[in-house]
Amino acid sequence: MLRYIVPLIFGLAGIAVLVSLGTWQMQRLEWKRGLLSDIEARISAPAISLPDDPDPRADRYLPVQATGQVDDTAPLRVLVSQKQIGAGYRLISALETDQGRVLLDRGFIRVADAIPPTPQGAVTVTGNLHWPDDRNDSTPDNDVAGNTWFARDLDQMAQVLDTQPLLVVARQITPPETGVTPLPVDTAGIPNDHLEYAMTWFSLAVIWAVMTGYFLWRTRRPNTQAKAQ
């Protein structure tokens, strides 16, 4: 009897652990969905003027509107890739406003396209403040001399363009800029893999249950065969 009880307890314990992990991931999924919903609501809220002392945590994704002139210094080119389009660059320029010079993410051009002329005269930018986290362990260092950037490192960009380390990602520029497609802030880059994790844990629980049942069946077979003889 003991040879059945020990593997049965071991099997039930393993199933309980795997199911609890899957349940925890489902709870995390609901939390992440709520978080993404809050971020999307914040992104699409009515725009306000640039804050005097923005906070990277409290003001992330803050919708803002600013009027100023785009500096005609050559924009910084940040290498990115767009689905169904391919490789291209984000163009980062300096925007001179009443609140000072800030970084402006104007949008996307293809790698093969020439950099469009700098907008002349005053423009009104509607967009969001952002402190992007583009860099990971495999991200190369920015090629400042060659003007090829692999991450939007705000401090480094601000030093090159002589601005505050404050980035406005354009959602709309008025008058519109020909040849540049805005890449507004959204939640697409925020991972939400909790459903896949949950399905993995639940699948492992099912496999564990099947293996436990099979082991108990194999353990019982010799006795059954012995009785039959």
Automatic annotation (TrEMBL):
Please indicate if the UniProt record lists NADP as a keyword. Answer: no
Superkingdom field: Bacteria
Note whether DNA repair occurs among the keywords. no
Q: Where would you find this protein in the cell?
A: Cell membrane; Membrane
The record's principal subcellular location, in a coarse class, is membrane
- Classify the protein's membrane topology as the record does: Multi-pass membrane protein
Q: Name one Pfam family in it.
A: SURF1
Q: Which residues cross the membrane?
A: 6-24, 198-217
Identify the keywords attached in UniProt to this record, alphabetized.
Answer: Cell membrane, Membrane, Transmembrane, Transmembrane helix
Q: Member of which family? A: Belongs to the SURF1 family.
Q: What protein am I looking at?
A: SURF1-like protein
